[in-house]
Structures are given as structure tokens and as C-alpha cells.
Specification:
With about 400 residues, this protein is an alpha/beta fold. It has 15 helices and 10 strands. The chain is globular, with a radius of gyration of 22 Å. Helix 4 runs parallel beside helix 8, helix 4 (about 75-85) runs antiparallel to helix 11 and helix 11 runs parallel beside helix 14 (about 355-380). The chain folds into 2 domains: about 5-25 and about 210-380, 3-Layer(aba) Sandwich (Rossmann fold), CATH 3.40.50; about 35-195, Glucose-6-phosphate isomerase like protein, domain 1 (Rossmann fold), CATH 3.40.50.10490. Strands 1-10-9-7-8 form a 5-stranded mixed beta sheet, sandwiched between helices. A 5-stranded parallel beta sheet has the order 3-2-4-5-6, with helices on both faces. Helix 6 (about 125-135) links the parallel strand 4 (about 115-120) and strand 5. Bound molecules: 5-phosphoarabinonic acid. 5-phosphoarabinonic acid binds near residues 70, 119, 173 and 385. 5-phosphoarabinonic acid binds next to loops.
């Protein structure tokens, strides 16, 4: 992929069972959780999302209030955080139970704000609590529910004459970003979701290739798994681009929730360069060798300062004056990689050509398929989250007392 350069060292060839599995993903029935792979090619579904988003965008809302948690908001939050600088409208994210934040959010809402409630189950306590509080204060606002057809939230919206958009039944929360769940609020805020989807489709095609040398998701999964078996049970996504921090948080959920089961799992962490070199760099380079790292960086940053020497800063740090910021950043990243090599710390690297709808869509699509391949290699069901359901169940019991 031109927009996304991937490099990793993998010692073993992909097992035949994994290659057969990759092949089987080309045609997945709609009732299979892996059908998320085809979501971006579902023209009928996309037309419904575009039409609804254009309609609500036409009402010129002051902002979009996105109420949802976990797989129901992290994908949109990740994409929005990466791309909002490109002139997008405001999205206010409301996920956890936090009265102070809710007060701040309520202060930013007016009667034109569009309220979007996203919950696949339609019964997640945090989401329903926040929706109730916001709708209570703004009962006349336009509101849209995004949920499973027939869920309690679906029926609740239907009864009140509110718009409701469907999440494909088999597609689970964290894999639903490229359905109405992520696309609708992003499009209302003015993010170009058509370009995003082009990136997703391009990456999906490449990440379904059986030739592992051409398939970055497959090689990345193999590299993470190979090192996991050798004791590197922590997977650190080390991002040298602060605007992509939420992308890291979304990837953390993908790995954590999809693979942490049956006593197995890879512990995902997110680090931000260069700042975190000054907090956890010592641990990473001098501590236990229990991590596999992917360095994520961006080639073209757009604005690029040149470090001026008017104040003779060369007296402080020689060789820095007159260099571009991008050169200083690249030198740091390459320095870190050299230090990792010296210490024999395993890593892979991904470089995005730029931050754009296309590259962000491509990166997320690659990470989703990488997670699916890791699920196969670890022999776990990557699509459920029984332990999360157990806490929800316990919470409901406690609330009923
Ligand atoms: O990825 C997942 O499936 C979860 O993180 C869910 O999205 C999260 O628990 C919220 O659930 P719901 O969408 O049913 O409100």
C-alpha cells in the first residue's frame, strides 16, 4: 500500500491453516461476525447513511452529541481526533458516568444540537444514563438512535417517532466503526466519509491477500504472535504523532477485548512519542523484555517549522539550529529504533504518508484484520466479550436492589 508502509521481521512462514482462513474471509455470510469486512462495500447501507447524514447536516446543528461507549464510540472518537483539524464541525463525546463532564457538555449544547445515541444492545447503563440526562434537558432536540433492529432502544425510538439507524446484526461493537455507528456522526460533522471508505476498501483488499509478503495485517499479526510465544505478552503501539493518540486507544480496545479470553491475551499499551520517551523510555529500554512494539509515524506533517538560530540556540544544542521539526522528529524516531535494535527489543514499523481520511481508514481496516488473524492464531473467538457482559449483568443486579 502506497499510503501505508509497513515493515516487520518475521522468522516463520504463515501456517497453512492461517492462509486457508485468510482465503475463507473473501466470502463471509451476513450472519457471521466477520461480515464487518464487507460493510464498507454494502452500497445499500452506505446510501442510507449518506442520505440521513446529509439530511441532518442540512439542519445545520451547532454540534453533534455522541452518546455511546466502547465499540459504540471509540472508532468515531479516534477518527474525529485525527481529522478534526481539517475543519470538521464539533462532536461532543459522552461515554462514562461523570457528572462534571456532563455539566460541561450540557453547557455546550443548544436547541440545534443533534443528539446521537449509539448502543448495539440498547441497554448499556452508561449510555442510557447519559442519554436520559441530556434528553431531559433538551427534550425538543433532533435525536437519532443507532442500534440493533428490534433492540429495546430501537423500539423506544420507534415509539417516540425518533430516527433509528440499524447496525448489521452480526457485526460487533468494535468492528462496527464503518457502519452507521462511526460513519453517521462523522459525516454530520463534515468528515469526508467517502474518502475514508476508499481507504478502508483499499486496505481491506490488500489485507485479504494470501501472499503474506504483500499483506501487512497478516505479517503484523504473525510478528506479534511470534513474539507473544517468546514471552513478549505486552503489545505497545508507540505513536510518534500526538493527534493519533485516540487511534491508539481504539487499537487498544481491539486487541484487549477481542483477544483477552480463555486465560490468553496480549496486553495492549499506547505510548506517545516523543513525550513518553521521557516517562516510560527508561522502562522500555532498560526494564523487562516483555514487549513487542509497533512504531507508528507520519511522513508528511503539512506545517513544518524550521528551528531558528536567531537566539544562538546552537550554544545549547549544537546541530539543532536550522533543522526542520520533521528532521528532529525523524532523528529521534530513528534513534529510538537504533536503541531498540541494540538492546534486541523486537519491533515493527508503520509509516502513514500523511494524516488523511484515506490513510486513517486504511490503518484502522488493517488493524481490524490483524486482530482477526491474531484471534485465529491464539485460537480464541475475537468477536465476543463475555467478561464485559458479566460486569454489565452484575451492575444491573446491583441497580435493581
Ligand atoms: O466492542 C464491543 O462490543 C463493546 O465495547 C461494546 O461496544 C460496549 O460494551 C458498548 O455496548 P453497546 O454498544 O451494546 O452499548
Amino acid at each position: 500500500m502506497q499510503d501505508l508502509k509497513f515493515s516487520a521481521e518475521v522468522k516463520s512462514a504463515p501456517p497453512k491453516a492461517l492462509l486457508d482462513y485468510v482465503k475463507s474471509l473473501k466470502t463471509v455470510p451476513a450472519d457471521d461476525p466477520r461480515s464487518f469486512i464487507q460493510a464498507s462495500s454494502d452500497e445499500k447501507m452506505m446510501a442510507v447513511i449518506f442520505e440521513a447524514a446529509n439530511r441532518y447536516r442540512g439542519f445545520n446543528p451547532k454540534n453533534v452529541v455522541l452518546i455511546g461507549i466502547g465499540g459504540s464510540n471509540l472508532g468515531a472518537l479516534a477518527i474525529y481526533s485525527a481529522l478534526k483539524q481539517k475543519g470538521a464541525g464539533e462532536i461532543l463525546f459522552v461515554d462514562t458516568i461523570d457528572s462534571r463532564n456532563l455539566e460541561r457538555i450540557l453547557g455546550k449544547i443548544d436547541k440545534t444540537s443533534l443528539i446521537v445515541i449509539v448502543s448495539k444492545s440498547g441497554t448499556t447503563a452508561e449510555t442510557i444514563a447519559n442519554a436520559a440526562a441530556i434528553l431531559d434537558r433538551f427534550p425538543g432536540n433532533k435525536a437519532v438512535a443507532i442500534t440493533d433492529a428490534g433492540s429495546k432502544l430501537w423500539r423506544w425510538a420507534e415509539k417516540r417517532g425518533l430516527e433509528h439507524l440499524e447496525i448489521p446484526k452480526a457485526v460487533g461493537g468494535r468492528f462496527s466503526t464503518f457502519t452507521a455507528v462511526g460513519l453517521f456522526p462523522l459525516a454530520v460533522a463534515g468528515i469526508d466519509i467517502k474518502k475514508l471508505i476508499i481507504g478502508v476498501k483499499k486496505a481491506t483488499d490488500v489485507c485479504l491477500l494470501e501472499d503474506s509478503s504483500q499483506n501487512p495485517a497478516l505479517v503484523s499479526a504473525l510478528a506479534i504472535y511470534e513474539n507473544y510465544k517468546k514471552g513478549q505478552t505486552i503489545y505497545d503501539l508507540f505513536i510518534f504523532e500526538p493527534d493519533l493518540e485516540m487511534i491508539g486507544k481504539y487499537c487498544r480496545q481491539l486487541i484487549g477485548e477481542s483477544l483477552g479470553k480463555d486465560g490468553k491475551g496480549i496486553t495492549p499499551t499506547v505510548s506517545i512519542g516523543t513525550a513518553d520517551l521521557h516517562s516510560v523510555g527508561q522502562l522500555y529500554l532498560g526494564g523487562p523484555k516483555d514487549k513487542f512494539t509497533t512504531f507508528l509515524s507520519v511522513k508528511n506533517h503539512g506545517a513544518d517549522f524550521v528551528i531558528p538560530n536567531k537566539t544562538s540556540i546552537a550554544e545549547l544544542v549544537p546541530d539543532l539550529a536550522e533543522k526542520k521539526f520533521s528532521e528532529a522528529l525523524a532523528a529521534t524516531l530513528n534513534g529510538v529504533k537504533a536503541a531498540y535494535r541494540k538492546k534486541d527489543l523486537p519491533f515493527s514499523a508503520i509509516e502513514l504518508a500523511e494524516i488523511s481520511e484515506g490513510t486513517i481508514g486504511a490503518f484502522l481496516a488493517m488493524k481490524m484484520l490483524e486482530t482477526v488473524y491474531l484471534g485465529k492464531l491464539l485460537n480464541v473467538n475475537a468477536f465476543d466479550q463475555p467478561a464485559v457482559e458479566s460486569y454489565k449483568e452484575e451492575t444491573r443486579k446491583l441497580l435493581s436492589k
